[in-house]
Amino acid sequence: MLIENLIFITFAVTLIASAVMVVFGQHPVRCALFLVLAFFAAAGLWLILEAEFLALVLILVYVGAVMTLFLFVIMTLSIDFEKMKQSFLRYYVPLGVILVCGLVTLMFYITSHAHADLIKLIPMQHVPADYSNTKALGGVLYTTYAFALEVAGVLLLAAIVAAISLCVRDVVDSKSQRVDEQIAIQPKDRIKIVKM
Amino acid sequence: MVEYVQYIETLIWVLIKIFLILIPLILGVAYLMYAERKVVGYMQCRIGPNRVGIWGLLQPIADVIKLLCKEIIIPSVSSRYLFIIAPVLTIAPALAAWAVIPFSPHLVLANINAGLLYLFAMSSLGVYGILVAGWASNSKYAFLGAMRSAAQTISYEIAMGFAFVGVLMASGSLNLQDIVLRQQGGIWHWFWLPLLPLFLVYWISGVAETNRAPFDVAEGESEIVAGFHVEYSGITFAIFFLAEYANMILVSTIAALLFLGGWLSPFEGIPVLGHLFAWVPGIAWLLLKTCCFLFLYLWMRATFPRYRYDQIMRLGWKILIPVTLVWLTVLGLAIEFHLKPWFG
């Protein structure tokens, strides 16, 4: 058990420390990289809970795709971050402090002894090594929750269509390449041979 | 007390196994570089390196010693820690992915259920090293290389993921050993045939993921000098090199495992030849298949001119992804109607 506890503590401390650094980091790119580290630590924690599908998908989707695009955008931004931070400190920090206080109070309230029956801590069920939680998840997702899955899919599709239509609003006169025409071009269309 | 001794024993065994995988891998990388210079050399009517050792066989070792002895230069306005971490970020996923690769029926470091997913997760991490290197160098060329590489990797990852989905559908498992065992029954039962379009898509996107020619716009020496690693020297540069070649070997091995039956013999089920080659260990077949793909890498590099950036994007988004989508539908129908001999 000791080794598992050690692994848990390592990942948990990494997760909290990198989450703190995301908020207090000096430069947005570094903050984004700490967010990546935070995702990693969270994936590690999920692996300890034997949720390997979720852990790997977290790395695959959030670290591999979402954060890459995030970094892509953040790196190309040129904003005076010092200036932004000043206004941020003035307006948002008090609001944030109030929110955090509220959340912490709520968490204490829920986990206090008065509500011990609300949260039942179920001991983790260890499953045999050949148990595939990918299969289990798929089985539930495509039978019991098939409708919810379809709705989520349609919502995502709507979001994609919206994002693309927002992007290509005013590029009617932009230049683009017509590959078919490019390939169909013949030397005689471009070169005029003059016999001397 | 006994418990801790067991933990330490397991740990030492795992470390020994890791070394048993890594040392041949790094030697393989060194001699893949040599092979590349020789093969590309002969394809261009040159003889390649031939000065160090017989036939230049010690050339990669000489190169490594040279790079180890060189000074590491850190650009003055770079972000120092990220600059140093970037090569580590590139090499770590390239090596970590080897943990789940099965070399023969019982020779695998970690036989996990979500092996294919793990491989895909690891291969999607390689781009971080490149992005961080490009940004931390504080150089415009490096930055351009990083941006190109990020866009390219994101685009081709989708096509590659769909190719993996096809393999998952055909084998009904994410476990790499199960995937190989599912292809038993000779060369016509390997997945390359029922999944031919996905096989091609996987290979093309694998070449694009490793930033190799003809998709090497991230380096593009004629446009942006050397791309993301333009500011790196000495051992830091060597690590980028090592990661690139380790990734090439990895992509080739995955191709052999998923589409060419991994360690299975190609003569399986053929009357005379099957018996004749029964003594060959499985790992030899896997290595042979991997080497075929590695040669294909070198061959492509010597043959094709570099794609233009917009052509790369067009190929990825408008050709490869639709092909995979169509073929996944076809595959679904084939599985549903138990098409013989693959899904009978």
SS-based structural class of chain A?
mainly alpha
- Give the % helix of chain B: 55-70%
Count of beta strands of chain B? 0
Largest beta-sheet characterization of chain A: none
Residue windows where pLDDT falls under 50 for at least 5 positions of chain A: none
Described by the principal axes of the CA atoms, the overall outline of chain B is globular
Instruction: Estimate percent helicity of chain A.
Output: over 70%
Largest sheet of chain B: none
Can you tell me about this structure?
The complex is a heterodimer of chains A (196) and B (344). Chain A has 196 residues and is an all-alpha fold. In chain A, 72% of the residues lie in helices and 0% in strands. Chain A is extended and about 100 Å long. The model of chain A has no long low-confidence stretch (mean pLDDT 83). Chain B has 344 residues and is mainly alpha-helical. In chain B, 66% of the residues lie in helices and 0% in strands. Chain B has helices at 2-43, 59-69, 80-96, 115-123, 126-136, 140-171, 176-181, 196-209, 221-224, 234-259, 271-276, 282-303, 309-336. The longest helix of chain B has 42 residues, at 2-43. The termini of chain B are far apart. The interface between A and B is medium-sized, with 29 and 31 residues.
Compact overview of the structure:
Chain A is mainly alpha-helical and 196 residues long.
Spell out the key features of this protein.
heterodimer; A: 196 residues; mainly alpha; 8 helices; 72% helix; 0% strand; extended; B: 344 residues; 13 helices; 66% helix; globular
Protein topology:
The complex is a heterodimer of chains A (196) and B (344).
Chain A: H1 2-24, H2 28-48, H3 52-76, H4 81-111, H5 133-141, H6 146-167, H7 179-184, H8 187-190
Chain B: H1 2-43, H2 59-69, H3 80-96, H4 115-123, H5 126-136, H6 140-171, H7 176-181, H8 196-209, H9 221-224, H10 234-259, H11 271-276, H12 282-303, H13 309-336
Helix pairs in contact in B: 1-2, 1-10, 1-12, 2-10, 3-5, 3-10, 5-6, 6-8, 6-13, 8-10, 8-13, 10-12
